[in-house]
């Protein structure tokens, strides 16, 4: 900061550096037109937002790259893992704010649910982890062992059933370095979010990703089915006007009895992580989806792994399709040889 600036101007500058990162793009645009100082600070904030969609929540910055139009970044609230929406979320679309693009936004944020206006990225009104039943069962291993032919030498890994994998959880004795917590250490591959004329934003590899490597979780708000239906209806109406992309995913976990299934609704439209930008491919793309349950947790998380080696710059994709899907009429531009021409959409 420039100490030679007159006191009044310095105070305005300091105040603006604290407040402006909390504004959304329309608010930022309108305040930037009021004076030169605010114009320059807004420009810097926009540049910082463009350079890291993850707001330092992940291990590497995830930049927005746009060579097709003038959209610098897509505005949303970042959560590295799935969360419960605040009780007011269904009535107020402005329920959450998150500082994004402040001068110390390269500092890795601490996850908590308090709203501390430090200028660093943080989540407001967001409850994480243990608040949805993650306390309880956990292992007591000295070391959980390494993955081998027989899997981990840890009772948590023996909880794997069918399509669902199990990792150590919040009540286990081991820490984040435990080999049985592969999907809990943030996004560890380098990614970028690239604009496409027809598909909007999409996620591309910014390094070679090896087959089987963990890429990211699909993080967002965990909704009740009633709320998911309400939002899907609203999103369908908005999408029909064009220029709106929703990111509500419905996952069904089939229980061992085979007679029932658990429906998990993850909405990453307003609050999500980098996975909210992954586009659909009719041929299944290059990502494998796995349900991952942390020991003691009620609900599993949806995780993406590379289904084959993915070259640097290649777009990441998976199939949104499912036997229970209907067609919503949006054109598919996945470009695969067996493209159906229309995007699958959940019949909620
Ligand atoms: C989860 S979002 C993916 C990110 C989105 N492209 C964006 O710009 O925010 C899903 C939306 O992306 C677009 N999309 C995804 N895959 C597509 C494809 N293969 N062809 C055309 N549009 C696609 C559709 O608008 C869809 O509703």
From TrEMBL:
<dbReference type="GO" id="GO:0005694">
    <property type="term" value="C:chromosome"/>
</dbReference>
<protein>
    <recommendedName>
        <fullName>Histone-lysine N-methyltransferase SUVR3</fullName>
    </recommendedName>
</protein>
<dbReference type="GO" id="GO:0042054">
    <property type="term" value="F:histone methyltransferase activity"/>
</dbReference>
<feature type="domain" description="SET">
    <location>
        <begin position="189"/>
        <end position="321"/>
    </location>
</feature>
<dbReference type="InterPro" id="IPR003616">
    <property type="entry name" value="Post-SET_dom"/>
</dbReference>
<dbReference type="InterPro" id="IPR050973">
    <property type="entry name" value="H3K9_Histone-Lys_N-MTase"/>
</dbReference>
<dbReference type="InterPro" id="IPR001214">
    <property type="entry name" value="SET_dom"/>
</dbReference>
<dbReference type="Pfam" id="PF00856">
    <property type="entry name" value="SET"/>
</dbReference>
<dbReference type="GO" id="GO:0046872">
    <property type="term" value="F:metal ion binding"/>
</dbReference>
<feature type="domain" description="Post-SET">
    <location>
        <begin position="328"/>
        <end position="344"/>
    </location>
</feature>
<keyword id="KW-0479">Metal-binding</keyword>
<dbReference type="GO" id="GO:0005634">
    <property type="term" value="C:nucleus"/>
</dbReference>
<dbReference type="GO" id="GO:0032259">
    <property type="term" value="P:methylation"/>
</dbReference>
<keyword id="KW-0808">Transferase</keyword>
<dbReference type="InterPro" id="IPR006560">
    <property type="entry name" value="AWS_dom"/>
</dbReference>
<dbReference type="InterPro" id="IPR046341">
    <property type="entry name" value="SET_dom_sf"/>
</dbReference>
<keyword id="KW-0158">Chromosome</keyword>
<keyword id="KW-0489">Methyltransferase</keyword>
<keyword id="KW-0539">Nucleus</keyword>
<keyword id="KW-0949">S-adenosyl-L-methionine</keyword>
<keyword id="KW-0862">Zinc</keyword>
């Amino acid at each position: 900061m420039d100490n030679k600036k007159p006191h009044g101007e310095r105070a305005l500058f300091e105040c603006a550096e604290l407040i402006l990162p909390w504004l959304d793009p329309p608010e930022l645009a309108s305040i930037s037109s009021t004076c030169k100082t605010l114009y320059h600070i807004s420009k810097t904030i926009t540049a910082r937002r463009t350079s890291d969609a993850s707001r330092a929540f992940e291990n590497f910055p995830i930049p927005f790259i746009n060579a097709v139009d003038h959209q610098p970044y897509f505005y949303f609230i970042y959560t590295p893992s799935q969360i419960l929406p605040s009780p007011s979320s269904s009535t107020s679309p402005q329920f959450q704010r998150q500082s994004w693009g402040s001068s110390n936004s390269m500092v890795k944020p601490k996850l908590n649910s308090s709203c501390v206006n430090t200028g660093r990225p943080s989540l407001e009104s967001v409850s994480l982890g243990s608040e949805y039943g993650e306390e309880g069962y956990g292992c007591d291993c000295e070391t959980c062992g390494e993955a081998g032919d027989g899997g981990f030498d840890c009772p948590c890994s023996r909880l794997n059933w069918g399509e669902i994998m199990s990792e150590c959880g919040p009540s286990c004795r081991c820490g984040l370095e435990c080999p049985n917590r592969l999907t809990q250490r943030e996004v560890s591959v380098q990614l970028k979010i690239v604009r496409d004329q027809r598909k909007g934003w999409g996620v591309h590899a910014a390094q070679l990703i090896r087959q089987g490597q963990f890429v990211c979780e699909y993080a967002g708000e965990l909704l009740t089915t009633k709320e998911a239906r309400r939002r899907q209806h609203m999103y369908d109406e908005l999408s029909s006007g064009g220029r709106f992309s929703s990111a509500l995913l419905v996952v069904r976990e089939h229980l061992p009895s085979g007679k029932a299934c658990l429906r998990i609704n993850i909405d990453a439209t307003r609050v999500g992580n980098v996975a909210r930008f992954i586009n659909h491919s009719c041929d299944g793309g290059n990502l494998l989806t796995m349900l991952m349950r942390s020991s003691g947790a009620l609900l599993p998380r949806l995780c993406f792994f590379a289904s084959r080696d993915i070259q640097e710059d290649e777009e990441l994709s998976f199939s949104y399709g499912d036997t229970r899907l209907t067609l919503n009429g949006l054109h598919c531009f996945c470009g695969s040889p067996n493209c159906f021409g229309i995007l699958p959409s959940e019949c909620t």
